[in-house]
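Weekly sync, protein design subgroup
Attendees: M.S., D.O., the rotation student, P.L. (late)

Item 1: inverse folding check
M.S. brought a backbone from last month's batch and wanted to see whether the design step gives back something sensible before we order anything. D.O. pointed out we never logged the input encoding, so this time it goes straight into the notes. Structure tokens as presented (233 positions):
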């Protein structure tokens, strides 16, 4: 079985980081090409828009990583029942969701059969696009939930200062995206140098996260399954 490679996820994230750096530099370059309020506005706006790009890159990275890990799981040999709890929960998510549209009578009549039959499914039937949305719109609790389900430990330590940066980037992004403030107004809260430093930490932190995922999955099928005996039975 080939090892998990997140090279495509890294490449996409690198493009996002590059775009963030470019927009910051364009805003800063405007300081030498304009005068007065216009130059300040352009520079501030670039910093505000940078937050939108960083958040988008993070959201795409987290969802793509989940998808790649589940695709890797689908290539393993085993049953849903033999998976560790987090992966078993993800595998049965469609059954949970399908129950939402049933009547109370149908719920009680078919609930057991649906879940029991799902446990005996091969892991190749798992929906790789299943993402455990916690309703926080990508706040830190979303990262915690993903890592708990997928078995990635101490992720706040892996991310380092990026863990602390996440809520701030999310808050600034939401102000722009939801019309609470303009990009220039958001960019007023921090300098070009502070934005560049943040982008660097963001790049380092999320690449460290991807390193952690690859190392964890490299432990082999035992990362996914409760025991070799159960997997081979």
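Designed sequence read out in the meeting:
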């Amino acid at each position: 079985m080939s090892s998990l490679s997140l090279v495509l996820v890294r490449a996409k994230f690198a493009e996002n980081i590059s775009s963030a750096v470019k927009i910051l530099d364009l805003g800063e370059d405007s300081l030498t090409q304009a005068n007065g309020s216009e130059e300040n506005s352009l520079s501030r706006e670039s910093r505000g828009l940078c937050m939108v790009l960083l958040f988008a890159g993070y959201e795409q990275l987290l969802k793509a990583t989940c998808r790649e890990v589940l695709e890797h799981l689908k290539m393993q040999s085993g049953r849903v029942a033999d998976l560790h709890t987090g992966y078993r929960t993800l595998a049965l998510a469609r059954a949970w969701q399908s129950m939402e549209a049933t009547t109370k009578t149908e719920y009680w009549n078919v609930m057991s059969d649906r879940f029991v039959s799902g446990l005996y499914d091969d892991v190749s039937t798992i929906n790789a696009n299943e993402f455990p949305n916690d309703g926080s719109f990508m706040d830190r609790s979303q990262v915690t939930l993903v890592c708990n389900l997928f078995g990635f430990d101490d992720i706040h330590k892996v991310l380092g200062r990026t863990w602390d940066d996440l809520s701030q980037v999310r808050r600034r992004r939401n102000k722009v995206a939801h019309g609470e403030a303009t990009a220039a107004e958001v960019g007023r809260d921090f300098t070009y140098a502070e934005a560049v430093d943040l982008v660097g930490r963001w790049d380092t932190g999320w690449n460290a996260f991807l390193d952690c995922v690859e190392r964890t999955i490299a432990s082999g099928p035992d990362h996914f399954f409760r025991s070799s005996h159960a997997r081979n039975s």
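Discussion: The chain has a mean pLDDT of 91. The chain is about 70% helix and 0% strand.
Action: P.L. to compare against the previous round before Friday.
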